[in-house]
Amino acid sequence: MTKLTFSSKTINAGSNAKTVKGDDEYLTAIMYLAPFKLSGVGNVCAMAELAKCHAPCLNLAGRGVFSNIQKARIRKTKWYFEDRQGFLDQLFKDADKFHKFCEKHGVTPAIRLNGTSDIRWENEKKNIFNEFSDTTFYDYTKIGNRKTKDIKNYHLTWSYSNADKKYSDMAGAAKTAGMNIAVVFRDDKFPKKFLNWKVIDGDKDDLRFLDPKKSIVGLKAKGPAKKDRSGFVVDT
Q: From first to last of its 236 residues, what are the pLDDT tens digits of the chain?
């Protein structure tokens, strides 16, 4: 199948090396913002300091190393904070265009709103999950108490870190909430089990909503994470 690409002001598809692995059936559009406090106008990653994930963030992996990409993410993040309504209006327009694009090309649309952020989109008054109820949304999150249980088309995978015991102890709550747990390992020699759950290879594709329940999603350290020694990256 020919590689599909979709571009808009807020979400894009086809440029992420991992998400394209699932494109025979699904096409995933991702929104990349400037993570943590990088934009200078607000924090889009509430648990970053506790989890120590702001330094090894995937923000600088792949195409993220280019200065024009970083500037674009900062501009977009400032837009989100300074003109929330205008930003959401554009996001809804782009999501609609993406849905029609997928229909035209015979693929199933999926959207990740938090490519390099951890925003509680479920708290926005303008509810994108209701508006696009036939689109699957999914994200990684470090916020274990997000109120998404009743949102049937939004799948969250909790992201583990052992940088601080206060954070790693939240794994139990994430399990209770029914989330799978993503763990970044030093290399691709994943253990068979972690936290008493079976480890699956999360690098085969990005379609986390298709993962078996009660799974540890193993991910190989990428970008700056390769040198991380904070505890965010787990040694096997």
A: 568 999 999 999 987 655 555 557 999 999 999 999 999 999 999 999 998 887 767 554 555 555 788 899 999 999 999 999 999 999 999 999 999 999 999 999 999 999 999 999 999 998 999 999 999 999 999 998 888 989 999 999 999 999 999 999 999 999 998 999 999 999 888 999 999 999 999 999 999 999 999 999 999 998 888 888 888 999 87
User: Cβ contacts of residue 37 below 8 Å, gap of 6+?
Assistant: 43
Which residue's structure tokens are 């949304």? 137
pTM of the model: 0.90
Contact between 168 and 194 under an 8 Å Cβ cutoff? The reply is no
Q: How many Å apart are CA 11 and CA 227, to the nearest integer?
A: 29
CA–CA gap between residue 71 and residue 48 (Å, rounded): 21
Angle at the Cα of 116 (from 196 to 167), degrees rounded to 5? 40
Kindly give the residue spans of alpha helices, DSSP state H, lying in the chain.
Answer: 48-51, 67-82, 84-105, 128-131, 165-168, 171-176
Rounded Cα gap, residues 195 and 181, in angstroms: 9
